[in-house]
Design brief:
About 50% of the residues lie in helices and about 15% in strands. The protein is an alpha+beta fold. It has 3 domains: about 20-135, Acyl-CoA dehydrogenase/oxidase, N-terminal domain (Butyryl-Coa Dehydrogenase, subunit A, domain 1), CATH 1.10.540; about 140-245, Butyryl-CoA Dehydrogenase, subunit A, domain 2 (Beta Barrel), CATH 2.40.110; about 250-395, Butyryl-CoA Dehydrogenase, subunit A, domain 3. The strands form 2 sheets. Strands 1, 2, 3, 4, 5, 6 and 7 form a 7-stranded mixed beta sheet that branches. It has a two-stranded antiparallel ribbon with strand order 8-9. The chain is globular, with a radius of gyration of 21 Å. About 50% of the residues are buried.
């Protein structure tokens, strides 16, 4: 799409949408998707490589992306228009096909932080936090992963919460927490010392004892401001505990939808790489002709669009099950594992199509190629998600 394009209707189909999945959205949702696409093309694409290379985030774009209505779409307190789980997935694809770092920012504040409040908060907490977060006035982060607790967070959390009267005292550490260097509020998951169950707390950025330090030297999703968090006797009032989260199982309503969202994001990354490679193949000449005329290049492109189509189809069905309330944890895990594997295959082929130019940022594939590695691992590694599916289909748990 040309950077100056303005959405005027519902006929704009992505080159990567070979089976016209966008047509499954309602007219309202299609118009919203085009608004998101227009913003990403006009505002994000021209600067994405530079911010990625500097490992910085374009904070000045937060009001604009919030204005598209893509943040907080899941909750009535913050949604700006009627929308479905299918639209929310498609929106993640639209974001990631331009910049996966920007998509991750939205996913963290909207899917994880707002998701935790939406699922675990009281009506009063939802009313207090969700509307301003949906407007982009309050940015959220989600503190689950720890230095020594990644795949085993369900049992291995070491951050503790001890209650004294109406105050909780939190101690511990978190790692890889997106948005945490600048978030106004971070949802911290900690084990209650009284019952050894996971609880969730809203920790404000100015809380004494709360420190978020930016992680440096990442080679993937460089625009995401991941942080190491330390919590040293951080006091949180009972009113800032999410009252409906009393165990790790209560987080299923947060982590399931976001896992499907990451599958959609993976397809966005694959779409961005594919579209760049398709463009390049039509422009790059070797042996006196565009390389798009070569059989092996066509094979790589055809295999890539087939992987994209298969992955999007899985995402579509997972979102439909989400909307119907029948999506299980294993189905979310299968979507994440399958789609991130297909993404990895697509970005590898697309980098290969570009040859040596494939490692240059300004050729449009290198950033997607690098970002795919982080998305392949977060929200559950392929190994862990595969074992969740295996448990569902065999009835036997293979976890250590």
């Amino acid at each position: 799409m040309h950077p100056n394009h303005k959405p005027t209707g519902r006929s704009n189909r992505l080159e990567s949408d070979f089976y016209s999945f966008q047509d499954l959205l309602t007219p309202v949702e299609q118009d919203a998707a085009l608004r998101i696409r227009d913003f990403m093309e006009r505002e994000v694409r021209p600067i994405a490589d530079d911010y990625w290379e500097r490992a910085e985030f374009p904070y000045h774009l937060i009001p604009g992306i919030a204005e598209t209505g893509v943040i907080g779409t899941m909750w009535p307190e913050s949604a700006r228009f009627p929308n479905s789980a299918l639209f929310r997935g498609w929106a993640a694809l639209e974001l990631a096909r331009v910049d996966a770092s920007f998509a991750t920012f939205v996913g963290v504040t909207s899917g994880l932080a707002m998701g935790a409040i939406g699922v675990g908060g009281t009506d009063a907490q939802r009313a207090e936090w969700l509307p301003p977060m949906g407007r982009g006035e309050i940015i959220g982060a989600f503190g689950l992963t720890e230095p020594l607790a990644g795949s085993d967070t369900a049992r291995g959390l070491r951050t503790t919460a001890a209650r004294t009267g109406d105050t909780w005292v939190l101690n511990g550490a978190k790692r890889w927490i997106g948005n945490a260097t600048f978030a106004d509020v971070t949802v911290i998951l900690a084990k209650d010392t009284a019952d050894d169950q996971v609880k969730a707390f809203l920790v404000r950025k100015d809380a004494p004892g709360f420190t978020a330090t930016k992680m440096e030297r990442k080679q993937s999703l460089r625009g995401v401001q991941n942080a190491d968090i330390t919590l040293e006797d951080v006091e949180v009032p009972e009113t800032d505990r999410l009252q409906r989260i009393d165990s790790f199982k209560d987080l299923a309503g947060v982590l399931g939808p976001t896992r499907v969202g990451v599958a959609w994001e993976a397809m966005g990354i694959a779409a961005g790489a594919y579209e760049a490679a398709l463009r390049y193949a039509g422009e790059r000449e070797q042996f006196g002709r565009p390389i798009a005329k070569f059989q092996l290049v066509q094979q790589k492109l055809a295999d890539s669009v087939a992987d994209l189509t298969a992955g999007i189809a899985v995402c579509v069905r997972a979102s439909q099950l989400e909307e119907a309330g029948t999506r299980g944890d294993a189905q979310a895990s299968m979507a994440k594992a399958f789609c991130t594997a297909r993404m990895r295959a697509v970005v590898a082929r697309c980098r290969e199509i570009l040859g040596g130019n494939g490692i240059l940022l300004d050729r449009g594939v290198a950033r997607f190629f690098a970002d795919a590695e982080a998305v392949y691992s977060y929200e559950g590694t392929r190994d862990m998600n595969t074992l969740i599916v295996g448990r569902a289909i065999t009835g036997h748990q293979a976890f250590v």
